[in-house]
Amino acid sequence: MIYNDKEYNFKEENWYGVNKNGKDYKITQVKLIDELNTVFLDDKDRREGNINGLGDLISRVTSILGFEECEGCARRKRILNEFPFLKKDLRQLTEEEEELMDRVIAESLVVTKDVDDLFKLYNSMFGTKLERCNCPGLVRTMIKRLIVVRNNK
Q1: Does residue 39 lie within any of the structural domains?
Q2: Domain carrying residue 144
Q3: Assuming Cys at both sites, which of 6, 10, 80, 112 could form a disulfide with 55, CB separation 3.0 to 4.6 Å?
Q4: Is 93 exposed, middle or buried (0-12, 13-18, 19+ CB in 10 A)?
């Protein structure tokens, strides 16, 4: 898929970019992941429940291109719908997760254990598989999104 003149692929439940040598690299920027999900997914369909996962999204695109769905396509669609690509209903934070968020918000420096726990919480809440890294921008963005979820519940 081409977005902003760059090539991206969705595989193994993650977005990957393609560098100038044609090699894939994993996208870890939450903002870019959100943009890619938004560009390749119609919000109206998500709200109305017409797209329940990656399988429905692919089915919609192929039907627009004029391909009819066969038995194999239907089976693949069911399997791909199991991907946590579209996390609709976000759960409430547990008491322990609330304490983690309180610590993270109160401190200017996040300790290693809390960063590990933040990645687990974020992946659990949003159905992603982000891997632990020390990128302060990613951690900051994750915290902001978790605060939004916390405040909206």
Answers
A1: yes
A2: 95-152
A3: 80
A4: middle
